[in-house]
Amino acid sequence: MTDNTAKRAVVPPAPTAQDLADAAASQAEPSTQPKNFMSLFRLDGKVGVVTGGARGLGYSMAEGLCSVGLEAIIILDVSTELGLDAAKRLHETYKVKSQFYKTDVRDEVSVNEIMNQIAADFGHIDIVVNSAGVADLVHAEEYPLEKFRRVIDINLNGSFIVTQAASRHMISQGTGGSIVFIASMSGHIVNWPQPQSAYNASKAGVRHLMKSLAAEWAVHKIRCNSISPGYMDTALNRAYKGLFNEWKERTPMGRLGDVDELTAACIYLASDASSFCTGTDMLIDGGYTII
Ligand SMILES: NC(=O)c1ccc[n+]([C@@H]2O[C@H](COP(=O)([O-])OP(=O)(O)OC[C@H]3O[C@@H](n4cnc5c(N)ncnc54)[C@H](O)[C@@H]3O)[C@@H](O)[C@H]2O)c1
């Protein structure tokens, strides 16, 4: 017979007066020197890689990292024209070193070669932002498997391939790093009315992948976190402008997010400002998922 007796919560013995006095005495005196908490957000000397950084949210996040002192920004994207432009503009605007690699995040061999090249050129890789992603709207019963697989392959497997390749350098450097995944509120709830089963499943996978890697790599000082945006006004969504009014009505703030409205969160997660933060997902959705 199995013993199904549930365990009670354990209440520790009440602290004695001496315990309370010792605890108070062990607390460091508050410093009278002003602390500069804003300096924790600086990324001086760091090398950052942003996938899908040629445009949209990825580009804005690349800009954000550059704006707080990043030494070098590397854009990985399938779009050569936009990617080259992005790297050039970041270099000219923020005076950072910049590099563009035409990359399909699904291509394990090429991603590994590129990460090796980045480490050889710049000496280290400190930050990765996984923003490359695609969406399509197809009714589930009609979804061609090849199309379904493509979304999972880019959004989920691609994030893993890039992160794994970068992590090998972060581990061998011994200095750790910060990985920021761009998941989605679609990984928390199912968006409506558009049919997007592959996208929703891929983003739920990204969040759980992030948490799994955070647990495994804390020992290597690699922090993994994600941002889950709501509806943002980017090219990815402008293809479905007919749904904008419905999306706005379903969002308590009554609007879509601006392309720059995730960037401060990305700086926070990439920097020492979030030094005790790993395995966390930040939902930034104008209140959509409150309801
Ligand atoms: N826009 C939104 O409302 C929204 C909401 C939640 C999550 N997201 C996620 O944020 C990320 C960025 O979205 P966005 O709106 O900026 O999209 P976007 O389409 O403007 O940008 C995506 C970028 O990824 C690149 N890309 C696509 N496939 C690639 C591949 N196989 N390899 C390398 N690069 C590839 C594209 O060329 C493009 O530059 C995506 O992961 C998306 O799923 C967006």
UniProtKB/TrEMBL annotation:
Q: What InterPro entries does the entry give?
A: NAD(P)-bd_dom_sf, Sc_DH/Rdtase_CS, SDR_fam
Which keywords are on file for this protein? Answer: NADP, Oxidoreductase
The portions of this protein that span the membrane are none
PROSITE patterns, A to Z: ADH_SHORT (PS00061)
Q: Which SUPFAM superfamilies match?
A: NAD(P)-binding Rossmann-fold domains (SSF51735)
One Pfam family here: adh_short_C2
Query: What molecular functions are annotated in GO for this chain?
Result: mannitol 2-dehydrogenase (NADP+) activity; oxidoreductase activity, acting on NAD(P)H, oxygen as acceptor
Tell me a GO biological process for this protein.
Answer: carbohydrate metabolic process
PANTHER family listed in its UniProt record: BENZIL REDUCTASE, DEHYDROGENASE ARBD, PUTATIVE-RELATED
Family, per the entry? Belongs to the short-chain dehydrogenases/reductases (SDR) family.
Q: What's the name of the protein?
A: Sorbose reductase SOU2
